[in-house]
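FAQ
Q: What does a multi-component entry look like?
A: The components come first, one per line:
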Amino acid sequence: MFAYYLGLALRSLRRSPGLTALMMLAIGFGVAGSMTTYAVFRGVSGDPIPWKSAQLFVPQIDAWGPVQMSGPGARSGTNEPPDALTYADAMALIHDHRGSRQSAIYAVGPTVLPTGTGHSPIPVFGFAVYDEFFPLVDVPFRYGSGWSADDDTQGAPVVVISDTLNQQVFGGANSVGRSLDLDGRDYRVIGVMKPWNPQPMFFDVVDTGGFSSDGPALFLPLQRAIASGMENVGAVNCPKGTQPGAGYAGLQQSACVWLAYMVELDDAAAVQRYRQYLDDYARSQQTIGRFGWPPNNRLRDLRGFLEYQHVVPDDTRVSLLVALGLLLVCLVNTAGLLLAKFLRRSGEIGVRRALGASRRAIHAQYLTEAAVIGVGGGALGLLLTGIGVFGVNRMLPPRLADLAQIDPSLLALTLLVAVLAAVLAGVYPAFRAARVLPAWQLKTH
Amino acid sequence: MKLHPILAALRKHKAGTVLIALQIALTLAIVCNAIFIIGQRIQRVNRATGLDESNLFFVSQQWVGAPSADTPDGVEKLDAMQREDLAALRNLPGVASVAPINSLPLLNSSWTGSVSLKSGAEIGDKTGTRTAYYFTDEQVFPTLGLKLVAGRAFNAGDVQHQGFRENRDRPVAIITRALADKLYPKGGAVGKVMYSDGSSAPTTIVGVVTRMQIPSSGSFGSDFAWNSTLIPTRLDANFARYAVRTRPGQLDAVMHAVTPLLYKVNPLRVLDDDSVRPFSDIRARAYRADVGMAVLMGVICLILIAVTAAGIVGLTSFWVGQRHRQIGVRRALGARKIDILHYFQIENGLIAGVGAVIGVILALGLNAWLMTHYEMTRMPVLYVLVGVIAVLVLGQAAVFVPARRASNVSPVSATRAA
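Then the predicted structure of the entire assembly, as tokens:
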């Protein structure tokens, strides 16, 4: 029967090419508009580490007190603690080690001096972390591994480098054990990562804003970085009206927040214990007089923290919303046109019904016709989505637009949405067509 | 013409009528809000920074193996290196003036703090006003093209230097008019003092400039976008940044000459593709997302309007075809062509009118919803009014062709079978 309905549909569509084209255009543009914005949205809102994001948590400790809630690191008008930790708090959490894995993190921007002549210095972007960082976020290694806990305590001069940096400096060879000059100091390469650039860069969204076109070029032990005076190139936010004391030591003693922190907690009980621990810690700080306020901590899981940080730009959400509105209008439009198209053939329906076709058959026939329009609109939509994604890539800031990719799943979704939209738009018109009274139609025509 | 027959006919086409009205309502709601967003973006992008932006470029470079900025000795060495660069840049042919500066408007890299009228304002003092600092020297006025409204510009004697993490007293400062009005609402800020970043050492305001935007172009700085403070101090660090104004028409030539020149002064430094950027590039990058959003919204609006117009044409054409015989009867009974034309025009006007009323409610509702969930301001009623007129005109334009076809139906068709 389906083949017969398909034949009828194609014949009917050929009879009114203008109206058919109009409907396909409407579906095509509607779908393409939504899919293009969806491609961008999907790119920025994806879970960077889906297999583990439920176990990763970001602790926030209020080191500033209630009067400070208008500082740049905090949200004005809310009671939210700062986005990052002070050095004192980060070190206390590391020392107490209450999660199964954890690391404090800060952004560094050293310069790599390749050995040999003819190489110019390479400014790079990386992070100072603890040994547990690598298993914590599942950093993939090509050669070697991360460093040990001993390396952390001793502040060993070791470094994990990216695939790109390994290409630039060592020509892509296994460089484990070789030495690398960072800001004039020698470091031993202990691991080389596979190409790794999670988007958003979830372990330090406060400093990176979530997206960067290149992945981190290197990681080195945090205590080593501090001992070498390697600058924090990420954000430093201080309570209103204060400044860190002089030099790097001053920054470490200050109430300024500049360290990101991530902890792995395996189950709900562990999360509960960690919350309790954070409160106990803040209370102990209150007792010794460092905090003049009751505990005000947060422990968001990774997705919650990304949401809180507005990693998905508001613009992207608003444009997705508007694009969905466009799809809705196209749907209503197609419904109206299908209604007109179907009811124009009331006479024909009357004849078919009189010859014994059931209401269900009429229904199926007209829904098939709607689906054919959906396929046509979908094909057009695919083409327009391609153009749209290309256009968006030219228009938006590169770090966002690079995330909007055309892939098989997007193409399949485009086609699916188009057909579904057309069938949905056809439901009411087909229902009306099936209710045509055969006797009345035959009498009046 | 009486409305009654039109309404009676519409009652026979309930579904089609409702669909067109709904489509018009949704189009109105979405287009109003989208155009409002576009308008806001355009307004943002067109804000003047207060700088003379032509013939201006920015150099940001880093020294390799530089001395530490945390020791007095290192600071002196770094300052000497910076002064060497400045001297070389100022001697470059085609250069009008050069100033060291930690950031520029729209660069989105800023040093923010607060200033207060109270000395040593304790932590959490609510009287402080947020501001962004520009650390620079006396050449900043000719280099950036700032306009002084009161007081004096910096002179060479004002200029100090310090390690970039040091806390040093700031004896003099120049602030923007916006900041001066906040601190001294009654005017006369020049010669008065303020206290910056909780210091207990006074800072004398020696001058006020008309306008200078802070480096942040995003929402972070939106509530103090014009509160800039200029401090006559060179910051010494392992990096240095310079603003350079060239003579008219020499921008490209000077920009090309800068990298080799700086490498000649001191080869131990890093300059990459991004290190030398004209101000136009800084502006374009800061507002790229806004322009992109405006274009996207614009395209979606155009598609929406086109789809809605096409829908009206399609459905009206169908109605005209369906009522072919009735139109013939009316014509045979003496209706003029213009009466038939008016019939369809009024019919469309009625549907579009109802759609517009629903659309106004939807538009305001959508705006209210966006306001609670996103950073959005209240849409002026003007947008909605213009939108209403626009959809009514759109409806009339779309209905014209099928309506004229209807008016051309010959009276003879009344006698023919449908």
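Q: Is there any commentary attached?
A: Sometimes. For this entry: Residues 69-76 of chain A have pLDDT under 50 and may be disordered.
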